[in-house]
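Ticket #4471: structure export looks truncated?
Reporter: QA, pipeline team
Priority: medium

Steps to reproduce: submit the single chain below to the structure queue and open the exported record.
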Amino acid sequence: MLGGWKLVFNKRADADPERQGYANIVEDPTKIVEGVLYEISEDDFEKLDRYEGYPNHYNRIKIEVILDTGEKVVAETYIAQKEKTGSNLLPTREYLERLLSAKPFLSPEYYERLKSQRTLD
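Actual output as written to the record:
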């Protein structure tokens, strides 16, 4: 869990930058983002950086998260560059389905909220 942040779909997609959005997080002291934490090698980080468009599309930052055991750890995450964000953007159904595949790791409430997200199609 990532406290003090919320999930939004405001990262403009190159294919349809006025309508389609990818996942991003923005600070919000009243919200929590749930997700899956992976341990990866530096080589894999380099590959992921290229895939995510770091540093042109996203910044990569260190941030404290809380594991399901209650333990706090420092993790790295991507946050979209401000000039790459927009408003009133929606994910595609296919993209949202990828996020929903984390269902076994999400609380039922968070999963249902994510599932209710409007999509482009």
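Status: closed, not a bug. The export was complete when the record was re-opened. Leaving a note from the reviewer for reference: Helices lie at 42-52, 93-100, 108-115.
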